[in-house]
Design goal:
The structure is a single chain. 40% of the residues lie in helices and 9% in strands. The protein has 269 residues and is α/β, with parallel strands linked by helices. Strands 2-3-1-4-5 form a five-stranded parallel sheet, with helices on both faces. Helix 1 packs across helix 7 and helix 3 runs parallel beside helix 4. The radius of gyration is 55 Å and the shape is rod-shaped.
């Protein structure tokens, strides 16, 4: 693969029904999101509900469904996102090669699994019905499945665990230069299970109890300074009475003399 490591790309899962395409896509999505990647998963449930994909009964209808998903994957990848396509079996080589050409940054993952294991996993009984001739359109039994000739990744889900398969796919994406190896090598974070089980969060350490701060002994202050005794002031000085002016004293004497003379004359008579 060519191009920068920061651009979007598509991982196209192909394989027979029940091989584990959706399980691996979910596990890889969790792993990539831990690396800070924007990831979209196209699984059978949502694709069937919103895109009317997954009902193909023959080659033409299945190829049409593959072209719809190719167009959607190309839009998301061109916008810088990562798309994991696991909605359909995409059994025909021509539409897978067409998707590769249109998308550009593309990795094909062949999810391989023996028929015996697929029958054991099948809870609906579709494989038994197809083997008995009751079901006429099951891919790989009554309809052909064309295995990829040169896929980027091959995973046998009957021999590897989900976590092992996810790490193997991630390593091949790094080898194809779709993911920066320095980003993919981040192992300091807790590992999330490929089946999407939440990782238990670490409990925050309890805060240490605050011990009371012991204060030092109070500092003794100096004794208060005794002030001097208040100074006694002198007694107020008594001022002399003001002497009457001289002209007033003379007027008083003049008035008093006639009175004295009159009094003396009366006494002589």
């Amino acid at each position: 693969m060519n191009g920068t490591n920061s651009a979007g790309f598509t991982v196209w899962f192909t394989g027979m029904s029940g091989a584990g395409k959706s399980t691996l896509a979910a596990g890889l999505a969790n792993r990539l999101r831990r690396l800070g990647k924007y990831v979209e998963v196209l699984d059978a449930g949502e694709a069937e509900q919103f895109l009317n994909v997954g009902h193909g009964q023959n080659k033409d209808e299945r190829n049409l469904e593959a072209r719809k998903l190719t167009w959607l994957c190309r839009l998301v990848s061109r916008g810088g996102g990562i798309v994991l396509q696991a909605a359909i079996d995409s059994p025909y080589k021509e539409t897978r090669d067409e998707a590769r050409r249109q998308i550009g940054r593309f990795a094909e993952v062949f999810v391989e699994c023996p028929i015996e294991t697929l029958i054991q996993r099948d809870k609906t009984g579709r494989y038994k019905k197809a083997l008995s001739g009751e079901l006429k359109n099951l891919v790989g039994i009554s309809e052909p499945y064309e295995p990829p000739q040169h896929p980027e990744v091959i995973v046998d889900t009957s021999k590897t665990t989900v976590d092992e398969a996810v790490e193997h796919i991630l390593g091949q994406l790094v080898a194809q230069r779709l993911i920066d190896p320095t980003v993919a090598a981040m192992k300091g974070r807790p590992k999330i299970s490929a089946r999407g089980k939440p990782t238990p969060q670490r409990k925050a350490p309890k805060p240490a109890k605050e011990q009371p701060v012991k204060l030092s002994k109070p500092v003794k202050l100096h004794k208060p300074v005794k002030l001097h005794k208040p100074v006694k002031l002198h007694k107020p000085v008594k001022l002399h009475k003001k002497a009457p002016p001289k002209h007033r004293a003379a007027a008083r004497t003049a008035r008093a003399e006639p009175r004295r003379a009159a009094a003396g004359g009366k006494r002589k008579r």
